[in-house]
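Format notes (please read before filing issues)

Several people have asked whether sequences and structure tokens are stored in separate files. They are not. Every record keeps both together, in the order shown below: the sequence lines, then the token lines. Line labels are part of the format and must not be stripped during preprocessing.
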Amino acid sequence: WLLRGVLFGLPGLLLGVAVLAWCWGPRDLDRDIEAIIDADDAASRQAAVRHLQAAGGSLREDVPSLVEATVLNALRRWFAVLFWFLLLGPVGALGYRLLALMAESPMRARVRVEPLALAQRLLAWIEWPVAQLMAFSMALVGNFDTAWKAWRQAHGERLAGDIGFLGAVARASVNAELREEAHDYSDAGLLPVWQRLPDLRDAMSLVWRMLLLWLAVLALLVIAGWVT
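Then the structure lines:
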């Protein structure tokens, strides 16, 4: 607020970019996913899974849980930061990141029980609209009918501080895309190329397509003058 209008807004722009870059992450989600896929032994894979699950989600190592953790990490590392940055500026991105660190990161072990429970409830409500937008984005960049049915079955229409529906939509979307891919290969008389953990690769591809959709919509809003 103090930097607004100073030097044509350049210091404020640089501050916003710096805060957004600092709140983005904490690590490269792409690399965390590749570390799980490329792990050749149980110890390295468990370490990679722990890195992926550090932001929350199921601690199981089965593929559906890892797909859910991928989308949840995308929410907490990318989409929620971007959403609150667009609404409230740098203070929104910073406030979300600090709340997420307090409620879901390993740092929560240092927080007393009552403040931790309050932070987790507040975080759930803050992430709820982001999860809804992500579910809608997943439907647009993937199989709309499958995503819609999964969202309804997971009671995503309820106004509640619960983002569990996002994992259900992600699992259903990934399964639908893998079925369609296998069907396309069989129609062409080809065998699918063998690859390790195709579900995780498809989940990461889905996340990238969602991010590109968000950036495209943001660019249109900037051009229209609704976002400055």
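For reference, the curators noted about this record: The chain has a mean pLDDT of 84. The radius of gyration is 19 Å.
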